């Protein structure tokens, strides 16, 4: 610390602290009003902004043209458009042909706001911003502080699946959101993990929703016969799909027989004991030799955030998405959660997929399916001696955006108690 006249100069440490405090205040504005981002996306989707812009052509659309196409007020629309441009969903440019009027185009991020099409993710936004899904967030602190009723139950009096069974509109929102996630993830599985489906004649998709996932898998691997298994109220309205049979039932009671059981975004809805029950039912459904269980779910890394941030910003964002999903599980399911590798290992061991005590005790690395926060875990019943192959898919998306798969395998034995 140095004194110059009466003025005291700040030390380097004090300056750093002041900078950090100032940055904290700026950062905090995002959290005060963070909900407005989600609300603006919902508004854009309900208005059909992305569809109107796409229909107009990629050269760009002016505000007045967009207001006419959407039949709405330009002054309000301008404020939404300006915010979406700030969030990088749209790009604005000036054009000579329009006397300097701004033209707007969709960015790749903006195209994800479409309701239809392979890359449209609007359904996920519409589900998460629905009043039904927003209400449980008000009960989150009660759940944490007093281990009160699950937040969804506190808000709606029953769990999400019973609620969906009684409210077809909400069930439709869930199924459409899941289908839109599947349209993003399944191509990455098909491109990155085709080997997993070699020699598999039939797959039962447990908690398969409206069958979008299986429809895509059987199209990519036409030798597979698909069984889409979900609650009766879900499969009764699922569309017909080639080579896919819909079966209604309860995975806690029995799972239809197939060569492989596939579970995507299902186990994270349940606590460890429930996952173990589901996995045991899956094991009963597959052949003792060469039967497979394939899990697609998130794996939370315990790595240090700052390090991730420096190393690869996309990894940092994907980790953030997984942690947000964990919050969503706390708000929307009774006891579901996202799991670390160690937590997965516990569940898998207890379900009877345990590793023999060999010198290689470290778990294989888990990497994400490109651009997603899902990892793929595969077990194969290998031989009559009940040897299992446990593979975690390591899939990287290099800078050229082509998928490269690197599977790390180690052997696991079936626990005698299972
Ligand atoms: C998060 S969604 C995943 C849907 C699909 N696997 C996907 O990724 O698109 C969970 C699914 O589990 C289903 N489910 C919930 N309880 C079930 C049960 N007891 N038996 C069978 N399916 C169930 C739900 O209806 C829902 O479709």
UniProtKB/TrEMBL annotation:
InterPro entries linked to this entry: COMT-like, COMT_C, COMT_dimerisation, SAM-dependent_MTases_sf, WH-like_DNA-bd_sf, WH_DNA-bd_sf
Domain called O-methyltransferase dimerisation: residue spans: 29-115
Claim: Transferase is one of the keywords in the record: yes
Residue span(s) of domain O-methyltransferase C-terminal: 137-354
UniProt key word Nucleotide-binding: no
This protein's UniProt keywords: Methyltransferase, S-adenosyl-L-methionine, Transferase
Pfam families: Dimerisation, Methyltransf_2
Family: Belongs to the class I-like SAM-binding methyltransferase superfamily. Cation-independent O-methyltransferase family.
Molecular function terms from GO: O-methyltransferase activity; protein dimerization activity
Name recorded for this polypeptide: O-methyltransferase
High-level lineage: Eukaryota, Viridiplantae, Streptophyta, Embryophyta, Tracheophyta
Annotated GO biological process: methylation
């Amino acid at each position: 610390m140095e004194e110059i006249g009466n003025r005291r100069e700040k030390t380097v440490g004090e300056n750093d602290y002041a900078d950090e405090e100032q940055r904290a205040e700026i950062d905090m504005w995002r959290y005060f009003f963070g909900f407005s981002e989600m609300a603006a996306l919902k508004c854009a989707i309900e208005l059909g902004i992305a569809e109107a812009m796409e229909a107009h052509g990629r050269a760009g659309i002016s505000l007045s043209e967009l207001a006419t196409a959407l039949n709405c007020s330009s002054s309000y629309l301008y404020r939404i458009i300006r915010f979406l441009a700030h969030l990088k969903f749209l790009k604005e440019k000036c054009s000579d042909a329009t006397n300097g009027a701004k033209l707007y185009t969709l960015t790749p991020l903006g195209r994800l706001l479409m309701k239809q099409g392979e890359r449209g993710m609007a359904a996920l936004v519409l589900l998460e911003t629905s009043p039904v899904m927003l209400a449980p967030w008000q009960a989150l602190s009660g759940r944490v502080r007093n281990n009160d009723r699950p937040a969804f139950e506190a808000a709606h009096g029953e769990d999400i699946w019973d609620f969906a069974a009684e409210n077809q509109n909400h069930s439709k929102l869930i199924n459409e959101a899941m289908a839109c996630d599947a349209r993003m993830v399944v191509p990455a599985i098909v491109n990155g993990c085709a080997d997993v489906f070699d020699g598999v004649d039939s797959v039962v998709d447990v908690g398969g929703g409206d069958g979008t996932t299986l429809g895509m898998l059987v199209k990519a691997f036409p030798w597979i016969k698909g069984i889409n298994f979900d609650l009766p109220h879900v499969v009764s309205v699922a569309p017909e799909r080639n080579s896919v049979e819909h079966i209604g039932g309860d995975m806690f009671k029995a799972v239809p027989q197939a060569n492989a059981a596939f579970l995507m975004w299902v186990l994270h809805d349940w606590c460890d004991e429930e996952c173990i029950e589901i996995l045991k039912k899956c094991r009963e459904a597959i052949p003792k030799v060469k039967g497979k269980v394939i899990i697609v779910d998130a794996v939370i890394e315990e790595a240090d955030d700052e390090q991730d941030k420096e190393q690869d910003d996309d990894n940092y964002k994907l980790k953030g998405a997984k942690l947000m999903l964990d919050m969503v599980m706390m708000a929307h399911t009774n006891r579901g959660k996202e799991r670390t590798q160690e937590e997965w290992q516990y569940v898998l061991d207890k379900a009877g997929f345990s590793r023999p005590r060999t010198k290689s005790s470290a778990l294989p690395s888990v990497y994400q399916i490109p651009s997603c926060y899902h990892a793929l875990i595969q077990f194969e019943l290998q031989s009559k001696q009940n040897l299992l192959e446990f593979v975690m898919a390591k899939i990287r998306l290099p800078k050229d955006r082509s998928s490269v798969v690197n599977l790390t395998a180690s052997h696991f034995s079936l626990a005698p108690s299972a």
